[in-house]
Amino acid sequence: MSEISALQKARAAYRPKLPAALANGAFVKVSEGEATKSVADCDKISQLFPKTYGSPVLTFAKGDAKAAAPAINVGVILSGGQAPGGHNVIAGLFDGIKSLNKDSRLFGFKKGPDGLVKNEVMELTADFVDSYRNTGGFDMIGSGRTKLETVEQFELAAENCKNLGITALVIIGGDDSNTNACVLAEYFKANDKGIQVVGCPKTIDGDLKNEWIEASFGFDTACRVYSELIGNLCRDANSAKKYWHFVKLMGRSASHIALECALQVHPNVAIISEEVAAKRMTLDDIVAQIARAVVARAENGNNFGIVLIPEGLVEFIPEIKALIAELNDILAAGGAEVEALDAVGKANFAQSKLSAASAAVFRSLPEGIRKQLCNDRDPHGNVQVSLIETEKMLAEMVGTRLKAMKAAGTYRGKFGKQTHFFGYEGRCAAPSNYDADYCYSLGFNAAALIGAGRTGYMSSVRNTIKPADQWIAGGIPITMMMNLEHRHGADKPVIRKALVELDGAPFKFFESVREKWAVETDYVYPGPIQYFGPSEVCDLVTKTLALEKN
Questions:
Q1: Both ends of the chain: CA-CA distance in Å?
Q2: 210 burial via Cβ count (<10 Å: 0-12, 13-18, 19+)
Q3: What DSSP letter does each residue of 316-340 carry, written as one string?
Q4: Catalytic site positions
Q5: SS3 462
Q6: Could you give the CA distance from residue 35 to residue 72 in angstroms, rounded to a whole number?
Q7: Where does the pLDDT of residue 122 fall: very low under 50, low under 70, confident under 90, or very high at 90 and above?
Q8: Any idea what DSSP says for residue 217?
Q9: Mean pLDDT of the chain
């Protein structure tokens, strides 16, 4: 390995904590709950997963330490986008299977699920794993986004595992990756492949959670990193007193990151996509909301502020969602003739074909956004929503609104704007103490699930607002989280995403204070992630989790 930083050297000495149930290694006593059902579409999901559907929730207690269980070979895959703590999941898994039998072996499939299919694999040795403990990133074995969905892929995966003597796979990923794990577990069991499959919940977006999965790993660290950066902007704004900072944050399908960062730093405005959809707020409503805060603060002599915007906001605004759907159809139908046009030509062509309502929305957008909507398209011809610079769009539209208000005499302040997108900055950060402990526990717990002979389960560690020795270890059947969604013209079984609950404690608290934050300068400056110091600084949980469980 290349030269390592002083922080990495210090963090290598950190020893993650474990739930009491895992104190004797991965030997556990298993308590089974009642048979489970999927969150929706029970009949269809049960038909799709007859071998794994209905399995009980498992709760572990400390088992009797045995001389040794049979040695096992286990494969591990990192799947999807990076999230802080992934290396500790692998470290926990490694230590867990070694606690069952010191001769157990762990193999890492490189570049995600693609490595499983193409047999790109390496054995993970103790020295190699040790060099990655408590570090951020997925660079130990790499990650990928290949979907496992064909019989050919399943057979190649089974054959590659058989050749290595692998009898269990652990897939570390988000909702789509764990959907892959569920499908693979069902196939292996239905076809007597003799390979267990266990999932671990990962995504910084925070949208893979439920009663049994309190948090997806990486969310805690990523939100701390973003909150540090936003806090720095708050301090700068309060120092220079001349800029409104518009900050877009990761979270295409849910606004958990935006809400958690708002709870951490107290911005003047934070838009929550789920509220926009529930109230059918228009783009004009959102612009007006931000403009009101700008005007109110200007009346107090404060021509500065902070606005937080979720990455996926535009897909939650009804008229923008309708506009994007029309654009996808129009530009796809235009074919090569449209592709030959320049950016302005494409925008003009699209506008001429839009319905009257969508054409009016299209004209209201800044020119740069109109061009993006017509030019930044994926291989299927659809708008790449994640590339839309929503923060710049809103900043420009608010500026236009304020100019009109100034001309009308209803606004007398000054409006300077800066825009930011915080995304990749948080995905590979060194894990916080919470994520270091939680991830290590998830991996070790996955070994316990393997030792207990289970398949089609997700590693579950909960009660994490308490000290680690009070955490509850166990597993939940992945089918329990499934429903059907219409994708690419067909109904597909997928894990249901967890959106921000507007009647939940975190949002209700935010709702109760946001009018105050909008007008006052009530910023909190979290500072950098702290590893060394008092427990009240180092061992916090997210505001979201604290509010949900208090």
A1: 44
A2: middle
A3: GSHHHHHHHHHHHHHHHHHHHHHHT
A4: 205
A5: strand
A6: 28
A7: very high
A8: B
A9: 94
